[in-house]
Write a structure and sequence with these properties.
The chain is α/β, with parallel strands linked by helices. It contains 15 helices and 19 strands. Helix 2 packs across helix 9 and helix 9 runs antiparallel to helix 10.
């Protein structure tokens, strides 16, 4: 009898990385992807949202030996460049000197991961829609978009990494008792726009920054690409006075952008075409539990925990799923028995669920920070005080953004610690004359006392 494969449903970022980890262990891996091969067909126009790679993501890539290659197509972003309505800019560093997040093309990274997956022996099948999963016997039913035929694949185990609208998760909902599921949509959508390279092929704005136009109830961001362009994303209400619903023609869009983003408009020659040609997409948070069925099925990545993009952690969290799973394989896989795999699947979900819930909540909160607070004097002062105190006492204080982005501390720890730190900072900011003495020994001693008491 032929060896039954380990089936990965979804050849996106997490599925491709996971297939590499599995293949490197010697398993026969087959990956089924509903889209065309990205290496032969362009990524869906207007839905790419550049990715921000940070420490957790790099750790996942290092585990399969691809980090150095990805650095060749990644651009460091050392902080936010905030653009006000007059076109003036202010730089806010993300962390300490030398710390950065990295802008990388979703499609470019996905293609490299698929190349490496195939190099290690994974077989990727494209244009395959997962119609059904029989959980008890680990059989996957697929529809081939090209031949229109149905295929039934008997698997040893199934890994569902097929995104926010996962077929694997749907089967858990339909076929198991007490499956918990929730989804929450923001009343905001996003639309991709572009700032092209300059005529000489250079960058039209500062290259090594995430640019942000924060406007209170909405915002636009821009991330650099290696070709000199910037991928811009407008996060905007679906309905209301200032919303996608209100911008119904080219004149209204032109007037709105010139008023609200005046320094960006001259850099966006295809603004009107992009606005009306590119789709308006939704923003959803998905939480569920359990993520596994016996030793037969495990959800990872957005299939288990789709989050909004405002902390730049969706991909990084999914990659961390893979590294945690790999670590548990090392710790518990003794004979490859059903019980070994049940334990590994169970411990993976128990380890990741509290952390994926935490980063989901943090991502929504960071949307409010990005669109409302980055230009507020109290917010700017708080960040200065935190950075100063952290430089003096790194063992006592890591700012929330640093915990999430530049460490692999559990997200749940970062959330709890961030709440404690925010309470401390409210007291510090209420101190008389804090603007003048924010970096004084007096404030330092106050913070040390509050940290020890918390």
């Amino acid at each position: 009898m032929a060896e039954k494969p380990y089936v990965v449903v979804g050849a996106g970022l997490v599925g491709s990385l996971l297939s590499i980890y599995l293949s490197k262990r010697g398993y026969k891996v087959e990956v089924f992807e509903r889209r065309d091969d990205l290496r032969k067909a362009k990524i869906s126009v207007g839905k790419s949202i550049n990715l921000a790679l940070s420490d957790r993501g790099w750790k996942g890539l290092q585990g399969v030996g691809i980090a150095d290659e990805i650095r060749k197509i990644a651009i460091p972003m050392h902080g936010r460049m905030v653009h006000d309505k007059e076109g003036k800019t202010t730089f806010h560093a993300y962390g300490k000197q030398g710390q950065a997040i990295y802008s990388v093309s979703r499609g470019g990274l996905n293609c490299l991961l698929m190349d490496l997956a195939e190099k290690h022996g994974s077989k990727i099948h494209f244009n395959q829609r997962c119609k059904d999963i029989n959980l008890k016997d680990a059989t996957v039913t697929l529809e081939d978009f090209v031949s229109k035929k149905e295929n039934h694949i008997a698997a040893t185990r199934i890994f569902s990494t097929d995104g926010a609208f996962s077929a694997g998760r749907l089967q858990l909902q339909l076929s198991t008792d007490r499956f918990e599921y929730s989804q929450h949509y923001l009343n905001y959508g996003y639309k991709e726009l572009v700032i092209p390279p300059t005529k000489d092929g250079g960058f039209a704005m500062e290259k090594e920054c995430l640019h942000i136009w924060a406007r209170g109830t909405y915002m636009m961001i821009a991330l650099p690409n290696i070709d000199g362009s910037f991928t811009c994303t407008l996060f905007f209400p679906f309905e209301g006075k200032e919303s996608f619903a209100a911008l119904t023609d080219r004149d209204k869009v032109n007037t709105f952008f010139k008023e609200v983003f005046p320094d960006a408009v001259p850099l966006m020659p295809t603004l009107l075409d992009d606005f009306f040609n590119n789709p308006t997409s939704s923003l959803v948070t998905v939480k569920c539990y359990p993520w596994s069925y016996s030793d037969k099925l495990l959800l990872l990545g957005d299939a288990a925990h789709a989050i909004v993009p405002f902390f730049g952690q969706g991909m990084n969290c999914g990659f961390e799923d893979c590294t945690v799973f790999e670590k548990l394989l090392d710790a518990h896989l003794e004979n490859g028995t059903e019980e070994d795999w049940k334990r590994i699947f169970d411990e993976t979900q128990k380890a990741r669920k509290p952390n994926s819930d935490a980063i989901a909540d943090l991502a929504v909160a960071n949307f409010i920070e990005m669109r409302d607070l980055v230009t507020h004097p109290d917010f700017i002062l708080q960040k200065k005080i935190e950075a100063h105190f952290s430089s003096l006492h790194p063992d006592m204080w890591i700012p929330l953004y640093g915990m999430v982005t530049f460490t692999d501390l559990p997200y749940s720890h970062a959330l709890k610690q961030g709440q404690k730190q925010d309470a401390i900072m409210k007291k510090i900011l209420a101190t008389a004359d804090i603007e003048a003495k924010w970096n004084s020994a007096e404030v330092e001693q106050m913070m040390m006392k509050l940290v020890k008491e918390s």
